[in-house]
Amino acid sequence: MSQPKSHRPSAAPETAPVRQKGLHPLPEPVKGAVITVSDRCVSGEREDVSGPLAARLLAEHDVIVDAVKVVPDGVESVRGAIQEAVSAGARVVLTTGGTGVTPRDLTPEGTAPLLAVRLEGIEAQIRAYGLTQTPLSSLSRGLVGVTSRDADGVLVVNAPGSRGGVKDTIAVVGPLVPHVLEQLGGGDH
Questions:
Q1: pTM attached to this predicted model
Q2: Using CA of residue 187, residue 119, residue 167, residue 40, what is the dihedral sign?
Q3: Sheet with 30-37, edge to edge strand ranges
Q4: Structural domains in the chain, sorted by start
Q5: In 11-161, where do the E strands start and end?
Q6: pLDDT digits (tens, 9 = 90+) for 135-172
Q7: How far apart are alpha carbons 100 and 71 in whole angstroms?
Q8: Cα distance between residue 12 and residue 187, in whole Å
């Protein structure tokens, strides 16, 4: 007796490239900024390892960071550092640190007033990805958003202060940077 024929469509050849809409590299590198938010790094008690890691990982996505800035925890220090980076021409600003629940973890509070639009879907995606790595990911209150809805808009991302948190955040955000910047410039969805 013969086997019944399958009604499933045939699969694409394994050698066919898989390309998701909107996930393409930047046409040229863009200026970025990394801000480490840590009282202990400012005082010299701890070496900043997450900021330099963030700069290296962003470079893999054509976001070029000249130097990592280190600022103390606090609303005003975070807000001022982000505003300075935007004024200096950064298109992508990533903070690392200050996203937890200690009394001095105020990075989201310093960031929020600068965002014209929050990208809550990306925030959720970062936390979900992080949860595959550690349950501590759910403690991060990091924000993601843009400073305006036009070509002058800057993508701002709060990452946790750990190396793992930085890796998880950039693993999610890095591939999305070109599409976010393209949309700010009036590109299609």
A1: 0.86
A2: positive
A3: 63-71, 30-37, 92-96, 155-159, 144-146, 117-118
A4: 30-184 (3.40.980.10)
A5: 30-37, 63-71, 92-96, 117-118, 144-146, 155-159
A6: 888 889 999 999 999 999 999 999 999 999 999 999 99
A7: 16
A8: 30
